[in-house]
Automatic annotation (TrEMBL):
It comes from the Bacteria. SUPFAM superfamilies: HD-domain/PDEase-like. This is HD-like signal output (HDOD) protein. InterPro entries: HDOD, RNase_Y/CdgJ. Residues 21-208 form the HDOD domain. It holds the Pfam family HDOD. Coiled coil: none annotated.
Length: 278
């Protein structure tokens, strides 16, 4: 089966909701659905998080990060961490687990390297998006963090299926972008119950032009993507800023500048990035 046929086959499956996830991902998706239930309260969320030791550790770690621990008061238990973060941030952490699990069963070293680079890129985008949302665009920072985590989830899914279609990820990514990305991403978004505003923002990220100064969630993602020091191995946006040019991006924000905000927020970005990389 050639690459184009493989992309179209997986895209057709995604369009019909026939997605194939590893068993570990299925369990995390069930957790995500439970957290998305409006009736999910702190006690239930705490029990769900405690059932997964790795997720419990990440929950406490992000609650103690500079971005979420403004008072400097450390937390050592899952319940107070859940109370500090709220269910929406927990959904972001679960989404991060799901995304990383998609590549956890890969044996091919080339695919594993692509997955590792894609996650590094994702963690940078998500961390930068949270700070840009809070300090620059004034969109909801938790939504921006979540959007950054899931913005390339379709690519992670494609990599997870690559072992079933030998050679599919060889060569340039243009065929993937043209014939698979949008449909496969939409299918995974539906499975993960990604809110429509996030889906719309990711679509704007891939196809829109970033406004300066940025205003929307899509603009937030575009700027974070441009500023991320690790590029995506799966997608190059038309008109994307080069890594060298990204270092020169600056504009006025209130009485300050973007560069001043990034300098002031470096510890927050690095703290979030470190938690996501756990």
């Amino acid at each position: 089966m050639d690459r184009l046929h493989a992309f179209k086959t997986i895209a057709a499956q995604a369009r019909c909701g026939e997605l194939a996830f590893p068993a570990s991902v299925e369990a995390s998706i069930r957790l995500q659905r439970a957290l998305a239930d409006p009736d999910c309260h702190v006690d239930l969320a705490t029990r769900l998080i405690q059932a997964d030791p790795l997720l419990a550790a990440r929950t406490v770690a992000i609650a103690n990060s500079v971005a979420y621990n403004r008072s400097g008061t450390p937390i050592s238990g899952v319940r107070p961490a859940v109370q500090r973060l709220g269910v929406r941030t927990l959904q972001t952490l679960v989404a991060a687990v799901i995304v990383r699990q998609l590549g956890s069963t890969l044996e091919d070293p080339v695919l594993r390297a692509k997955t590792a680079q894609l996650w590094e890129h994702t963690a940078h985008v998500a961390s930068l998006a949270q700070v840009i949302a809070r300090r620059v665009t004034n969109v909801d920072p938790d939504t921006a963090l979540f959007a950054g985590v899931v913005h390339e989830v379709g690519a992670f899914y494609m990599l997870s299926r690559a072992a079933d279609f030998p050679g599919v990820m060889e060569g340039e990514p243009e065929d993937w972008i043209e014939h698979g990305e949008a449909i496969i991403s939409a299918g995974v978004f539906r499975e993960l119950m990604v809110p429509e505003p996030v889906v719309t923002a990711v679509a704007a990220m891939w196809h829109g032009l970033r406004a300066l100064p940025p205003e929307t969630l899509g603009d937030t993602l575009l700027l974070a993507d441009d500023l991320a020091p690790i590029p995506s191995p799966m997608h190059v946006r038309p008109g994307a800023t080069t890594a060298q040019a990204a270092r020169t991006i600056d504009f006025a924000v209130g009485d300050g500048t973007l560069q001043a905000i990034l300098d002031e927020s470096r510890d927050e970005v690095e703290s979030l990035y470190s938690v996501l990389m756990l």
